[in-house]
Amino acid sequence: MVKHAFRNTLYTNDNLYVLSGLNSGFVDLMYLDPPFNSKRMYSVPVGSKAAGASFKDMWTWKDVDEFYLDSLANNFPALARYIASVGAIHSKPMMAYLTYISQRMIEMHRILKETGSLYLHCDPTASHYLKHLLDGIFGKQGFRNEIVWCYRGGGSPKNDFGRRHDTIFRYSKSHELIFNGDAIRVPYQAEGIHRKDDAMWGKHKGTDKVYKPHPVGKIPEDWWIINILNANDPERTGYPTQKPLELIRRIVLASSHEGDIVMDPFCGCATTCVAAQTIGTKMDRHRHRKASGASPHPTSERRRRTFQGFYCNGPNSQTERPQNCSAVSIRQRAVIQRTKRQVQRLRTGF
């Protein structure tokens, strides 16, 4: 059997079908920025680079894939009970949203390598519910960090503090994970840079070892101050929930090596793919990571024209599928007939 080399790929299809068709232990790093259950409808202004893209962030049981419901209930009974409790504590739409995410998260866990990491980007709308979901799939020992991405913006509510942060949960499958601390060092705070004498630095108790700054800087804390993209930023494509390249590049540099496979199952305007491809200089292209993304929208296909080397696979593409991607559509073609009574049993079984 001929072994085909991996090709940078954009899948424009339901990511559940894409994920279920990929081999286990295939991906080195996974970053996802799924809908936040904000109960909003997002659309792109006419005339922008991403014109035509839109998506709803409102959830019902119609968004849940019924084929995977029994698998979730049978293989993750504790997780199913937890999701059911959220329906009672919060609402049925939140229950449907968590079911939608969990069906995909189970597949993400399966295709992630033992040395890999997963970063889930969310906001306070559902972050506290999503962390329990991640604990149920990765195990509580898989939790690594809760990263707070802080940014500034105009306008504040009269009776609350201004909401100016997102949450990024970082999980791994094992303790043998990739983490490149030296690749993401940042400058020290100003109060420490003028210390010249060893006496000005703290010492280890009971030893002569002196705490001194690393010549390149420090590994960032778990709160990151990175500005959001303003309306006139050259990075802007017009996609409503676009994240800055600086944010994603830090994640890619920290948790992947040269030549590793990086995947974003909710890639939107393909910022993760761009970040993975553009790390390193133009003259040093072998340092780039290999990237893969899945999106139900054609926006990613439009943005792929801004960088080279990406194959686009899906109903919005006219490109012929390469042989090594043939497994992606196997489960998509499977048709499982279920009666209304069976479906109702699965829903009420949570």
Count of strand segments: 11
CATH topology of the largest domain: Rossmann fold
Overall mean pLDDT? 75
Strand content: 15-25%
Taken together, the total number of domains comes to 2
Biggest sheet, spatial arrangement of strands:
8-6-7-5-2-9-10-1-11
3D shape? globular
Q: What sequence of helices (H) and strands (E) makes up the elements?
A: EHEEEHHHEHEEEHEHEHEHH
Residues in helices, as a percent range: 25-40%
Derived from helix and strand composition plus strand pairing, the structural class reads alpha/beta
> CATH homologous superfamily of the largest domain?
Vaccinia Virus protein VP39
Radius of gyration: 22 Å
End-to-end C-alpha gap: 44 Å
Structural overview:
This protein is of the alpha/beta class and 350 residues long. The protein has 2 domains: 9-185 and 220-348, 3-Layer(aba) Sandwich (Rossmann fold); 193-217, no CATH class. It has helices at 15-20, 69-75, 77-89, 92-111, 127-138, 245-255, 271-278, 299-303, 330-333, 340-348; strands at residues 9-11, 27-32, 41-43, 54-56, 112-122, 143-150, 165-172, 223-225, 261-264, 290-294, 311-313. The strands form 2 sheets. A 9-stranded mixed beta sheet has the order 8-6-7-5-2-9-10-1-11, with helices on both faces. Helix 7 (271-278) links the parallel strand 9 and strand 10. The longest helix is centred in the N-terminal third of the chain and has 20 residues, at 92-111. The chain is globular. 35% of the residues are buried. The model is unreliable at 42-52, 281-287, 297-302, 304-308 and 316-346 (pLDDT under 50).
